[in-house]
Amino acid sequence: MSFSSAGYQLQPVLPELVLAVGAMVLLMIGAYRGQGTTRLITTLAVCLLVLTGVLELWLPAGKLVTFGGSFIVDDFARFLKVLALIASAATLILSTEYLSQPSTRNFEFSILVLLSTLGMMVLISAGDLISLYLGLELMGLALYVVAASQRDNAKSSEAGLKYFVLGALSSGMLLYGASLIYGFTGTVSFAGIAAAATTGSIGIVFGLVFLLAGLCFKVSAVPFHMWTPDVYEGAPTPVTAFFASAPKVAALAVFTRATLTAFPGIVTQWQQILVFVAIASMALGSFAAIGQSNIKRLMAYSSIGHMGFALVGLAAGTVEGAQGVLVYIAIYVAMTLGTFSIILAMKRNGQAVEQISDFAGLSRTNPLLAFTFAMLLFSLAGVPPLAGFFGKWYVFVAAIKANLFTLAVIGVLTSVVGAFYYLSIVKVMYFDQPLTKLDPVRFELRTVLAVAGIFNIFFFAYPGPLVSVATAAAKSLF
Fold it and tell me: Is position 49 within any domain?
C-alpha cells in the first residue's frame, strides 16, 4: 500500500498521523461530553497507543525516508518508538486511579500524554535539525502542562513552572547550537552535516556543544539536571512515572542518532563532552541520592545516574555502544515502571505515602510486594543475574572495547555507591518495625508490576530477543 501527498510518501508517517487524528477525536469527545468521559478517554487512549504500535511494526522492513530526508523510519526508530509507546500506555494504565478521583478527574491528561508521545515519535525519526526541534517542542509543551496538572496544589504548580522556565532555556541553547551548525555547514540534514563536518572547525564544535547542552537537559544529565528532583517530587506520581520513562527514551534516541549520524567525522570532539557528562551524571546520581528521605526525589537522582550509565555506551561511538544504549534504555523503562507502580500502590487509608520510612516492615505486612520491590531495587543497582546487571554489562563492555577504561572503572565504582541507597530501602522493608497495613493494591498496578517484575527477574534466562533486536537497530545507524 502506498500513500502520497504533494509528492511525499505518507506511509512512513502513517502511525503518527493515526495518533494525531485519534488524539484530536478524543479531545472533541471530551470537550463535548465533559469530565464524565475521563475513564472512557483513558481506555481509548491506551487502545490508540496499542494501534499505533501495531501500525509501526506493520510498516515495510528496511529504511523508509520521506519529507526530503527529514523523517526516517529504520530499525532504530521502530525499536525506540515501540518502547516509547509501551511506556506511555503503561503510564496511562498506572494513572487510572489518579484520574478516577473527583479532584483530579480531567480527560485532558490522557490527550496530553498522547500528544507528547506524538512528539516523541517525531523526535525519534528526526533526520534533520528542524524535525528534531519540532519533535522536541511537541513533546515538551505537553509535558510542561501535565507537570502542573494539579492546579490547586502549590507543589505541582511550582514543578510545572520550574520545568517550563528551564525547558525554555534549554530550547534556546539547542536552537542557538542548531543555527551555528547550519551556518557553518550550510545544511540542516544530518547526512549533509556529516558530509560537511569532517574536520572539527571551531564553529561546528561550538554549535555541537550548545546542541548537546539542550539534549542533556531533556535526558536530565549533569550539569542540566537541576530541575529533575523538584519536578519529580512536585508533580503527581503518575506524571512522574511518565517523566521517568517515555521522554527519556525519545531524548536518548535523538542524542544517539544526532551524534552518530550527523557528526561521525568529529567523534573525538563529542566523545570528550559525553565522557564528562556521563561521569558527572553517574557520580551525582550516586552520591546525591544517599541523603534523600522522599522516594520520588531518590528516583530522580537515580534516573540522573542511569542516564549517565546509558551515555557511557554512547561515548564509545561504536555499534556495540549504540546496542548497549538500546538494551539499557529498554531495561531501564521496565525497572522504572515497576518501581513507580509500587510507589503508586503505597497508600494508607486512601492517602498516598512517599517517605522511605513508610516502607518499614513491608516484608511482614505484604511479603510479595516487598519481594518484588527488592528485586527491582537490586536490578536498579545492577546486581546479577537481574536485568539491570545486563544493561550495565553491555555499556561497560562497549566502553572497554573503545579503550575508555577510566570511564568504565568510574562507572563500576559509582554503581557500588548507588547500590548503598537501594539496599538501604531493602533494609527498611525487611528489618524495621512494621507500620500499619497498606491499602489493597489495585488490579492495574498489580498488572504493570507483574510484567515489570517478571521481565527483570527472568531476563537472564532468555535475553536473546531483546539483544538481537537492539543489535539490528544499532547497525541501522551505521
Answer: no
Grid coordinates representing 1?
500500500
355 beta partners: 294
Q: What is the pLDDT of residue 4?
A: 56
Please choose, from the candidates 222, 343, 332, 233, the residue with its C-alpha nearest in 3D space to the C-alpha of residue 287.
222
Contact 234, 156 (CB under 8 A): yes
Does the residue 427 lie in any domain?
Answer: yes
Determine, yes or no, domain membership for 16: no
Q: What is the pLDDT of residue 306?
A: 93
The string of pLDDT tens digits covering residues 327-373 is 999 999 999 999 999 999 888 877 888 888 888 888 888 889 899 99
User: Which domain range does residue 356 map to?
Assistant: 263-478
pTM of the predicted model as reported, rounded to 2 decimal places: 0.93
Number of domains in the chain: 1
| Rg for the chain, CA atoms, rounded | 21
Q: What is the pLDDT of residues 81-130, one digit of tens each?
A: 999 999 999 999 998 888 887 776 678 889 999 999 999 999 999 989 99
Q: Is 68 exposed, middle or buried (0-12, 13-18, 19+ CB in 10 A)?
A: exposed
Look at residue 121 and tell me if it is in a domain: no
